Automatic annotation (TrEMBL):
<dbReference type="InterPro" id="IPR036188">
    <property type="entry name" value="FAD/NAD-bd_sf"/>
</dbReference>
<dbReference type="Pfam" id="PF03486">
    <property type="entry name" value="HI0933_like"/>
</dbReference>
<dbReference type="Pfam" id="PF22780">
    <property type="entry name" value="HI0933_like_1st"/>
</dbReference>
<feature type="domain" description="RsdA/BaiN/AoA(So)-like insert">
    <location>
        <begin position="193"/>
        <end position="349"/>
    </location>
</feature>
<feature type="domain" description="RsdA/BaiN/AoA(So)-like Rossmann fold-like">
    <location>
        <begin position="3"/>
        <end position="401"/>
    </location>
</feature>
<dbReference type="InterPro" id="IPR023166">
    <property type="entry name" value="BaiN-like_dom_sf"/>
</dbReference>
<keyword id="KW-0285">Flavoprotein</keyword>
<keyword id="KW-0274">FAD</keyword>
<dbReference type="InterPro" id="IPR004792">
    <property type="entry name" value="BaiN-like"/>
</dbReference>
<protein>
    <submittedName>
        <fullName>Flavoprotein protein</fullName>
    </submittedName>
</protein>
<dbReference type="InterPro" id="IPR057661">
    <property type="entry name" value="RsdA/BaiN/AoA(So)_Rossmann"/>
</dbReference>
<dbReference type="InterPro" id="IPR055178">
    <property type="entry name" value="RsdA/BaiN/AoA(So)-like_dom"/>
</dbReference>
Amino acid sequence: MSKIIVVGGGPSGMMAALNASKSNHEVILLERNGELGRKLLLTGGGRCNITNNRDIEDFFDKVVNNKKFLYSSFYSFTNKDLLSYFEENNLEYKIETANDHKVYTKSDKSEEVIIALKSDLKANKVKILYNTKVVDLIIENNTVIGVKTENNQTILADKVIISTGGKSYPNTGSDGMMYEILKKYGHTINKIYPALIPLTVKESFIKNLQGISMKNVEISCKIKKKKISQVGDMLFAHFGLTGPAVLKFSSYINKYIDENELEISLDFLPSINSDEISKLIRENPNKNVINNLKGLLPQNFLKEIFNLLDLTDKKANELSKSDELKIVECIKSMKLTCNGSIGIKASQVTSGGVSVKEINSSTMESKLIENLFFTGEVIDVDAETGGYNLQIAFSTGYLAGISV
């Protein structure tokens, strides 16, 4: 039996603590807040998007950074394993097949996930110390032997698992402090970027579109001749763009927009070509253009498009060919200048963190410091929305827990 310290009581930390304890180790879980899983409560809009029900092989296509690193984690503890675990612990869930195969709690209450995990932690005799902030590691001869806490307490252990999260939502406890500690002991911390984040737009007219939601929009750009695109729902905001498609898109461009402006293109009807839109505009020649298009696009959006193009709505048979082309181009290829995001504090996920080159992907142990392990968002791995990031947390937590 070894003594294991787990630093951080989020999903990956709880899963690591559970599986270390099930291997008959003495486990102490240190949580800086007065409760476990504070950030977990926010996921899925408070509903907790536990995982995704796609085949585990499909998960790799949804990982944005360092997907190969996650092979051992994902296959050691798959989404099916996670759902079986929750079934065994009396958590009911539902699969929303029409909603990208996302898995939520049946009650739509994220606290039920925490209740199930806490109950299992108690059953497995994991000691939880709340309001305990770790401010340093104790390293001797390139081996971790314990931690120091904010109140000057030293807690010794045979092995330490770092599950402190990234820098997003710092009010939940993930303020990035652990990155500085790890850097001090030789670990490379890859630059931190906000991921799954609303984007800011330079054009001032965007404020006039604020609050308008759009279905199945293709948002795209080119970076170094490579096309990046996402299709899904989006929402105009006073600062720019948000919504599922925008959040996914942001994770693929966040490094570029950190230092550059980027032209992005919005196709509001990606399944209909330009000629078809022109026909629809002219379909009822005695009706106004907006009337002909209102079944395809929101009327308030169309009105703003006409204002933007300095056009007045008129009967289709009175519309000039050049104005028709302007309308079609705006619908099929609205150009905007993305000049950043709303920042790391509001991002759903942190991109960047401890370099995967310095972690053994088969065990989650540091290659630099013996007996030091990592899980979850503190590592430089992130994925699209849809339950994939939580699966990363649970899978890496499981693997670290069984490897100590």
